[in-house]
Design goal:
The structure is a homodimer.
Chain A lengths: L1 E5 L10 H9 L2 E5 H10 L4 E5 L4 H11 L5 E5 L9 H7 L8 E4 L4 H9 E2 L5 E5 L7 H13 L3 E5 L9 H10 L7 E6 L7 E6 H5 L7 E5 L5 E3 L2 E3 L8
Parallel strand pairs in A: 1-4, 1-5, 2-3, 2-4, 6-13, 7-8
Antiparallel strand pairs in A: 8-11, 9-10, 9-11, 12-13
Helix pairs in contact in A: 6-7
């Protein structure tokens, strides 16, 4: 049995009860070294197999193979679908016809970070990653353009890295073609972890702010407001 | 203290530990009658204040008022931001200057339903509600058009109701202008509850399928595939 488990932002409290149960039931925990360290603190008596960044395929192959005769949890931060390992596990599963996969959902950064900022995600929104490692840059630009044009709240994952230092600025420039510089935005760094930081700011300010790869960014829609320092997208109930 | 708590899809296991702790700490639980019934089973000894559909404002006002001298949990299904009460609570909070609000995130239907189908939400996606009760119909059409055009996976909330029986068909027709009728789609009804049903089907089939308001619908992007009956959006690791 292979559980593909979303552990949320990183605190034990942010895990679902189902995620906790899957890990408790497992004889082997497989994951990216950094996330495995978080989990080891809560489940110190388990066996772990960990690999580093960009070794996703090795990790998933190992988890599928071991799940033939063991209960295995393959852990992912946030939710195991979104930029996680569930998709890859299903892609590789035809070579492991006996593998039984169960995806255990978790709270992705869009929601754990949104809760820190207030309620940016009250309504329709789009999640867009700025990483062009696995998606062509032209497709990312097109998605930003479309999401900006139809006034959806936009959540940006992977806003920056050493080799992509100016990507958030470029993304803001695309959105600024359709939205005012006063649009309410926000970001949260190290969500649910030590050193959590957040800020509510305008789109013009966001454009000129440097954020790192541990940051999730929110661009409000035309109705999003700052209320007592919180980023709030109204739903419209007040007008009903 | 006012906790605005996402309880996930409805099972106790789908709740986060933080959501469970917030409810346990609370002297009063406020919520929509149907969701309160789910919670009462797990926390039978609490005091509850419940209201029916379309009484969101009464519920939130009551929760804000009571939180002045009590610890209160305002419960929402899924996540408390997305089509939940967190936004409205912040909107009404200036009239309750002493209210202390903490949003406790939960797993929204997009992710709990996606886990049932496989991994449709591996990458960039948009959430769009078809309910035109609080959003102009023209804006909804525009969002569908934009999300379809830039090849994002689309998750549809509120796909149908008695007065909107043909809305999903109309939404599919918009998407069909940009995507093939063979596009892999899926839906899940009663996610995580008794009578859960799911199906993976093509966009052409989805167009001619009747779904109810308890259903969450997924329209794949151009790369989404059906693998052993699961709906899987690849991330691209295999090509790296």
């Amino acid at each position: 049995m292979l559980y593909i488990v979303g552990i949320g932002a990183g605190s034990r409290e942010g895990m679902t009860i189902a995620a906790q149960q899957a890990i408790e039931r497992s004889e082997l925990i497989v994951g990216y070294t950094k996330y495995a360290e978080l989990i080891k603190e809560y489940f110190p008596d388990k066996n772990y197999f960990t690999t580093g960044m960009k070794q996703e395929r090795d990790r998933v192959e190992a988890a599928l193979k071991e799940s033939g005769n063991k209960t295995v949890s393959l852990i992912c931060s946030g939710d195991p679908q979104l930029f996680g390992m569930a998709g890859l596990a299903y892609e590789l599963s035809p070579a492991h016809p006996d593998a039984k996969i169960v995806v255990v959902p978790g709270v992705t950064a869009a929601f754990s970070g949104g809760a820190v900022l207030g309620s940016p995600l009250t309504m329709d929104f789009a999640v867009i990653s700025l990483s062009d490692l696995l998606t062509p840059a032209e497709k990312i630009r097109k998605r930003l353009e479309c999401a900006a044009e139809c006034d959806m709240v936009i959540v940006i994952y992977n806003p920056s890295s050493k080799s992509r230092a100016d990507y958030l600025k470029k993304a803001c420039d695309i959105v600024l073609k359709h939205r005012s510089g006063d649009t309410v935005c926000g970001y949260v760094r190290n969500i649910g972890r030590d050193g959590q930081e957040s800020r509510v700011l305008t789109l013009s300010q966001l454009r000129d702010t440097a954020v790192d790869m541990f940051t999730t960014v929110y661009i409000g829609n035309s109705e999003t407001r700052a209320i007592n320092g919180k980023m709030v997208t109204p739903r419209g109930y007040r007008n009903v």
